[in-house]
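The methods section describes the discrete structure representation at length, but only in general terms. What matters is that the chain and its backbone geometry are given together, residue for residue. For illustration, here is how one protein appears when written out as sequence plus structure tokens:
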Amino acid sequence: RSLPLSGVSHEVIGIMPEGFAHPEDAELWTPLAPTDAFAEVMQSRGSFWLTVMGRLRADVEQAAAQAEMDAIAARLERQHRENAGLGVRLVPLHEEIVGDVRRPLLVLLGAVGFVLLIACANVANLLLTRAAARQRELAVRAALGAGRARIARQLLTESIVLALLGGAAGLLLAAWAVDLLHALAPAHVPRLSLVRVDATVLAYAAAASVVTGVVFGLAPVSQSSSTADALKDGARGGSDGARGRRLRSALAIAEIAVALVLVVGAGLLVRSFVALNRVDLGFETRGLLALRLQLPRAAYPKEEQVAAFYQRLTERIRALPGVESAAAASSILLPALPQSAGVIVENRPADTSSGARVPVPYDAVTPEFFDTLGIPVVKGRRFTAGDAPGGLPVVMVNEAFERRYFPDRDALGRRVGFGTAPAPDTTWYTIVGVVRDTRRAGVDRAPWAEMYFPHTQAQDPAMFVILRSSGDPLSLAAAAQAAVWSLDRNQPVSSVRTLRDMVDRTQANRRFTTLLLLVFACVALALAAVGVYGVIAYSTAQRTQEIGIRMALGAGRSDVLRLVLGEGAKIALIGLGIGVAGAALASRLLTGLLFGVPRWDPMTFAAVPVLLLAVAAIASWIPARRAVRLDPVTAMRTQG
């Protein structure tokens, strides 16, 4: 079949699998050839915009391939001075695709494991308590001939059944939560559409349930075995002794420590996200709407036709009710690989160092671009209608460009060109203005050196048309699209987005990781509180007679309250001490995810332990209040 693409008929010669969309979100592919559209840029050594992919032979390691490419790069550098300092870096394709999301997903995987550990510790505590309450039953079973293995098998079976029931409930919850995960997750997470509850997930859940049931069922098994022997000798039932109390306290301490690690991690990410949102982007985002267009070369073969189309379009959009200004630019937010080139300065020797070879992003913009985005001009002037084709080639740069190429003098009036060294045919552009730095390359990146050319002198058929509205910019989307089609009814508009949405999308991964880790931290905090409460409540119940005797001998309610709360405070403080050390180690994993916050952030490491101490105090307060209300006579008659 034939398909018209940008006004040119293409024959469909093959169909790729539905799940294949590389690079990025491609849906169709055309041959890359040095046609009229790409001949100049493909043959220019100062142009950087292609990624080369290759498949290694089975007998070749990546290190060997890298060494061979280094040798080729060295030969090219000797043959072409334009290649000085470039080099070649081999990256596994899998790493290239998942590199940005691997660390966040590993952090979330660790958080899930920590929450599972806390939940299992709680279940182990409950099983220990239940085993202590069943000591007489277990003693009778032992007296009737049941050996330790038989009793251990019974208790392990019960813990595994509990774990399997919990796993089944978790699977039902996960099946519902997958849709929520898809809604919350960034759209560009690799293979996100394949995330579902399938046979692999079922097998993993079953295995995890059995393993956790066995591992965390061993504690009550060991306790029950020793208790059964003690009961054969006539020990009183209902208490598992000091060993049981120590084991339950150790589990509660572990819960507090693990919860602190999670809450500290969530706190660091939240603080980092807040710091990111406070960064001055250098341009406005509110009230701005962007439409993406690419004029087909078949319909607009001449550069003046391209310039005239965008000039008429911005004028029509500017005339719409509610539009304050309109402009066009070849890009708004700079991608990871923006259109860029090497820069040389007139009357200055070429610098071949690796730092100087870093290409500079450039954009073609209409004169209203800087006013529409609220980017102030700090020196010189803006582009005007006088910057026409055939006139003096001009360029505007940002402050980072001036610092990089003119650290000791004013950039205004200086001339720059593209390439690696001056040549007879080099086109020199006069710097007529310097604008404020922006963070168009990313909120978490330092401003890049940038260049801006008037669209009339550097026509680009692919442009963003931007409008500023005093109200909701999305309400003008239909009218803006109608303005496009009034000029060319066959011209597609590939995307219509607010600038705020475009900026938010750049932080989607960080927001997603922060949100999920915060949820896991809250769950861990709640589970840890339940664990501390369970330990203190059971311990207090076991010490009912002791408390009654203390009160009968004159101990006041405050003394009893201090006794119970002291036990909870001891558990919490030990857990916090271990947790702070663990959080210090775990924070290293978050280094690449933090911005404006050190991994040893004093505020986070001070506030989180106080929060957990307060949670532990509240959890201990309930059994403490119950203890002080005991009647001494009744308490002394109660069997421990």
